[in-house]
Amino acid sequence: MDQKLFRSRFNFHQICHHISSAPRSALTRKAAVLIAVMEKDNQLQLILTQRPLHLRHHPGQISFPGGKVEADDPNLIATALREADEEIGLVDSNVDVLGAFPAHYTFTGFEVTPVVAMVKHPFELRLDSNEVADCFTAPLDYFIEKSNRHTVEFNRQGKAYTVHVMPYQDKFIWGVTAAIIDLLCRHLHVKN
Questions:
Q1: How far, in Å, are 10, 143, 184 from residue 187 at the CA level?
Q2: What confidence tens digit (pLDDT) does each residue in 150-192 have?
Q3: 17 pLDDT above the threshold of 90
Q4: Nearest to 136 by CA among 144, 127, 145
Q5: Lowest mean pLDDT among 4-18, 27-41, 91-105
């Protein structure tokens, strides 16, 4: 899939509202993540990060650049763009925001809004070691292949929940990040 096809499929289809996530909590903290798609080696790649082990929430997990809404963020898109700049050095002038998906909820009390954007030009990574242990890209085509997207049942306090999991090379993507990738792939309506 190239940028033109990605943009047309993303913009053509109605935003999917069937989201697999934790139940909505009465006390949620709003957050936003950036699904940054870039072209590399003639294929579209997702930019993903790995969180450091010292973080209180989701230590060591694979995630998209993003974080909690701050008081001076005018909206959730601004939150995702600010966080991407702070975490990996992807400045807002280097992305073309295409839209946002509905929020996902986490068991840790976050309401996470995924913002989809196309990276315009290659950029030099500048990692904030307090928030990001590693940053890497993964080909979108890998995740579009349905056989690379899995679900498992997870029991929490006597209730069964579906959790998305996606092994990729030596990485294990799961939870809300995997659910967002699954949502993106389903939204693009690629049948496999």
A1: 7, 12, 5
A2: 988 888 778 887 888 999 999 999 889 999 999 999 888 755 4
A3: no
A4: 127
A5: 4-18
Q: Are strands 110-119 and 29-40 parallel, antiparallel or unpaired?
A: parallel
Q: pLDDT at position 112, please?
A: 93
Judge whether 85 and 48 are in contact, CB under 8 Å.
no
Contact 39, 120 (CB under 8 A): no
CATH at residue 94: 3.90.79.10
Name the 3-class secondary structure at 85: helix
Q: Phi then psi for 36, rounded to 5 degrees?
A: -90, 120
**pTM for this structure?**
0.88
> Could you tell me the two tokens for 13?
């289809």
Domain that holds residue 107: 3-187
Q: How big is the chain, counted in residues?
A: 192
The total number of structural domains in the chain stands at 1
Distance of alpha carbon 54 from the chain centroid: 21
The CA distance from 116 to 122, in Å, is 17
